[in-house]
């Protein structure tokens, strides 16, 4: 299970669901207009993310933090392979990391004309396959009051993401 700071994850989710034929289609109709406000969206969805995380970690064989993966991908992947008792091939690990880099995934998406990733291909999604993969986007997108509200309400985030 790979987890990422939900403040960033929810930013991506916001744009994914906003850029649809019917934005926020899976949410209650009476909330859809409010969900266009990114700060409201993050506050509204945070508990669902926390619940998903708490359930997922109990079922996961291995847990990797996206920040750790970005900081030292080789170490994290090698540690995972060791935990699985698979044969270590450092060259293959390095090649896998390079092959799956954000830059190469974007290049592949452009070359292959891939626009949607896991998004619906029925014409209801108007976004892009990938965004930026950068961490800390929430600092530019959200109001400081929203960030503080989320961190104070969900103390688990302080521990997991050094907030």
The chain-level mean pLDDT equals 87
* Widest β-sheet, arrangement of strands: 1-2
Give the CATH topology: Rossmann fold
Q: What is the overall number of helices?
A: 10
Indicate the structural class: mainly alpha
CATH-level-4 superfamily name? P-loop containing nucleotide triphosphate hydrolases
- General shape: globular
Gyration radius from CA atoms, angstroms? 18 Å
Distance between the termini: 21 Å
Q: Roughly how much helix do the residues carry, as a percent range? A: 55-70%
What's the main sheet like? 2 strands, parallel
Q: What oligomeric assembly is this protein in?
A: single chain
Mind telling me which CATH architecture this is?
A: 3-Layer(aba) Sandwich
Number of domains as seen in the coordinates:
1
- Give the beta-strand count: 2
In terms of per-residue confidence, which ranges show pLDDT below 50 for 5 or more consecutive residues? none
Report the CATH C-level class. Alpha Beta
Percent strand equals under 5%
SSE string, helix = H, strand = E?
Answer: EHHHEHHHHHHH
Describe what this molecule looks like in 3D:
With 163 residues, this protein is mainly alpha-helical. The protein has a single domain (2-161), classed as Rossmann fold (3-Layer(aba) Sandwich), CATH 3.40.50. The chain contains ten helices and two strands; from the N terminus they run E-H-H-H-E-H-H-H-H-H-H-H. The chain has a two-stranded parallel sheet. Residues 2-149 form the Sulfotransferase domain.
How are the SSEs ordered, and which strands pair?
Layout: E1 2-3, H1 6-18, H2 32-35, H3 38-59, E2 64-65, H4 66-71, H5 73-83, H6 90-99, H7 102-112, H8 138-141, H9 144-153, H10 156-161
């Amino acid at each position: 299970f790979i987890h990422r700071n939900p403040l960033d994850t929810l930013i991506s989710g916001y744009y994914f669901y906003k850029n649809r034929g019917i934005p926020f289609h899976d949410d209650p109709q009476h909330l859809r207009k409010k969900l266009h406000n990114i700060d409201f969206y993050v506050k509204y969805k945070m508990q669902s993310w926390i619940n998903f995380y708490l359930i997922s970690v109990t079922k996961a064989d291995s847990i990797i933090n996206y920040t750790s993966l970005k900081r030292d991908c080789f170490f994290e992947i090698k540690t995972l392979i060791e935990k699985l008792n698979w044969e270590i091939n450092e060259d293959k690990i390095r090649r896998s990391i390079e092959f799956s880099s954000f830059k190469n995934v974007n290049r592949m998406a452009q070359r292959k004309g891939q626009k949607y990733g896991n998004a619906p291909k029925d014409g209801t999604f108007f976004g892009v396959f990938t965004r930026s993969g950068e961490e800390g986007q929430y600092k530019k997108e959200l109001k400081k009051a929203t960030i503080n509200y989320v961190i104070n309400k969900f103390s688990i985030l302080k521990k997991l993401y050094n907030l």
